[in-house]
User: Fold this.
Amino acid sequence: MKVTFPHLGTMHIFCKAIAETAQIPYIVPPETSRKTLTLGVQQSNECICLPFKIILGNFIEALQMGADTIVMVGSGPPCRLGLYDLVQKVILEDMGLHYRWLTIPPRLTWEALWKNYEETKELKKELSLKNILLFPYGLYMGWKKMMACEALEKLAAKVRPKEMRKGETQSRLKKALHWVDEAKNPKALREALQRGMVYLEETEQDFSRNPFRIALVGELYTVMDPHINRGVEQKLGELGAEVTRTSWFSTHILRSLRKNKADRDSDRGRFLEASKAYLGYDVGAECNVSIGEAILRSKEGYDGVVHLMPFACMPETTASGILTQVSKDHDIPILTLILDEQEVEGRILTLLEAFIEMLQWKRNTASVFPAA
Amino acid sequence: MEAKHRIGIPRCLMFYRYYPFWQTFFERLGWKVVVSDGVGKKGTIIYFEDSCLPMKLLVTHSMDLVGKVEYLFVPRLVSLHPSFIMCPKFRGAPDIIRFATEGRASVIDETIDLRERETSLLRSFLRIGQRLGASKKESQRAFQEASSVLLRFQMEWTNRINLLPTRKIFEMDVPTPLTQKKESPLQVALIGHPYNLFDVDINKDILGLMKDLGMEILTSDSLTEAEIDRQISGLSKEIYWSSGREIVGSLFHFLRERVDGVIFLTSFKCGIDALLQEFIKRRLRVQRENETPFLILSFDEHTEREGLITRLEAFGDLMEQRKQSLQVTNVPSPQRL
Assistant:
């Protein structure tokens, strides 16, 4: 048995940690590249969303490398993500690739657990007692690594707009993430994180700068994965903007565990509440959160919002329409970037540069005419 | 009863399934129902967001009605089935209309969610009635009448679509012609969302074109829910959009029934269709059972009628040839129900 999982931001680091700690054989798919995307595009059609194509590409590459068991996060209605597995399974079958599929239930319900049990029944025969006993420890390591990755990424977003040499933060972040990836036990991980944080802080910075504050909102795959969004977060940072995003693995995992559902004070709860003025119903996925976050960020004095969505994404299409209205009502610049495989090098960079220049212009006029 | 005021219904989306119901309900409450004209000859489509064509048409039709009516009926259709849901775009549709019309129209945006309880549909319409100033009793009576009108309409469905021009199908004062029993050479199943099938602004009147070519049209409306459920019961995961279930279920049904051909109509950028289209294609290929001609037609605002005619003619020839070759090789012609 060789387990594999799709790429999504830094997910491979902690998925790998789980498998490694529990001593389950695994294959990390090659880093998402042009080839991955091409494979995914060839095996789907133009109106299917970009995450579908990239995940499919990851799976094809991993299966060709010898993996045989796919672990995939499940999801529910109303967005298409919930039916990815139905379609991807039949596509892989049609391509003549052999696989076994294991869905991680999106919500912990009895029904989902039962289905999970059914799916894992076969797999369990191949696992030794040692694997099973080590699995909780693996989950613990995975969770710790995930939190470490998020801490590093959050710090990098703060450092990046102030860096003296363009691109230095990114290379330091990469190194720090690599240290986290290498750590084999909790103690080593703590040290790696500590070392990484210090290393990032040591980036030569110009503290006199006053970076723009930009919130990154939108569909979670496009927000979280730099391969899907072509490094929007990094590009914005290097153009001199401090990027805040609320879409992290931990937020989504906690949400599906229903940990922060009762907590009305959580960011997500606040955003959903704020979106009610614009949307009378929960449209699903991140639509309402995108809108609510844009509204609240404008009140918190952010300079702008960048909204990311895959082409033809159903909930975010509604969001993009309403965000134009939010932008007018709350006087906050919002840039919607629609992403798909038709990407010309430089398109996104040009758009972002223009956006930043516009923010600069807005800031200058505001200082000249404070009343306006 | 004299008409009090006017209520506008955009001629798009689920209009193409529930119009008889909506019309009867509002008329019984004493309102005059005004239906939008559509994009007309000029074909100007008003955009609000970069959505699929049917959603763009909703904006266009609503804008057409603004100023002509007191209320605009754009319900928030969350679910029209006790356990399955509609496309997520329907959930935001009334809000989109509210912003697109810039508050110039009063939108009746009652949420219709049949998952809540058995009587949710009635409850939603009672609330609508209340908003229009009708008493509970009046609304109840109107609801009942509307339900029976819809039922009658659905029974006459196959005759209506085959014997009436497309634009007249939903004109309730046009009576359904009686069946003229003529042996139709080709039986073709049309599958897709109801608005893709019957909205001439989307599909350039494909129904008319098909009838001109002598095809008899079957749609999923003639199938029972139980039959659709049966056809897709074996899937590894439940499809949770009711329209998606209908599309996949009726496709499998018609293929098994051995109709002469199946045409799947989709709109460009329709999320549900894009995913299911891939699923259907792959599944048919994996199973290797299907020999029935199957055509997928995708529509957007640039679709031209001429191109459509060519493709339909070619598809017709294909079906014709296949039928003849089946007869020549003496394969017993498959049974039809």
